[in-house]
Input
Amino acid sequence: MTNENFHTFIDLGKTGIRGTSFNKENKKVQNHIELKIENDLLNNLSNQEKSLENLIFNLEKKNGEYLNEVSLMVDNSNILSISITIFKKSDEQILNNNFIKYVTDEAKFEINKNYLNYEIVHSIIKNFVVDEKIFFELPKNLNHNKFAVEFNFILYPKFFLENLKKVFARQNVIIKEFIFSSYSKSIFYLKKISDKKTKIFVDIGFEKTCAFLFENEKLQQFKILPIGGNHITKDISKILKIEISKANEIKLNFNNIDNYKNLKKDQIELIKKIIFARIEELLEISTLFFGANDNLKNVKLVFFGNGSKILDSKFKSSIIFNYDIDLLDENYIDICLSGFDLINTEKEILDNKVDSKNKKKGIFEKFFNLFG
Output
């Protein structure tokens, strides 16, 4: 058995792990497995490999071939978002993709030089500035005197990535590339929401929330907020003085809380206040990209992730928040599909930027062209 027929993506979450194998020939989903995990896999890497081992074994069995490499989708609370703008003057009067590739490599070189303990996972071009005019796509056939390219780089701690590589190596699997899972899903869902130019995608996770601001289909900013669905569980546990498992059960069955026989009426009302307060806090901090006086009527907020399910309850009319909100019910296969789409899109962009037939590399360009 060899790893030639499938491209496999694994999404390593806090409460579950998913694996999807795509047929390399027709690009379609071939096999999929999802395993629930009770403990935090990433905080107990050395003790929680059994779930990963089971997932890999079952995928290999379904695929009929060994799993030698994977694309790994994973989030981390210590991700950095670094913005950098490269200013250039060129003798060329028309911008071309080859020159943009050179500028991108120069920006990467600067990031790697200044952030030695981090590794670039995603490189994003926010916009182009040509003679002080902003473009969201590379302008074609436009004369210029000077221009700038504004980048966003998403960086992961090297220590975190190396630990993951070791875990997978013990399963004889190489991690081909890392994918920021929340970012990948936001890009995927962005294509499904057509109204309004400004959108905020909010992935409410186990102990963190990721919020992404898009304008004109381009990522402008993102924030990682230290609050997630598990904080609601902890609040209920602490205030009612009950076990975490019991508090989580109450949270997951919030729709039926009025029917809980083991809770007094005042306890039920207190739980509602706890949950509503946390949800309103999440909603408010998700809009921190904007000032207090900014008008959010033209902004679409889209919530997804396991933690967002509590927003979709029969009590949601009790939540005080007056902006346009959508709740996405995630399909677990779509999670890995978002990674598949993102990697293929990034590959297409890279291929389009390099025209090897017309490109002659000088020694200076070879020095910067380290990441092609």
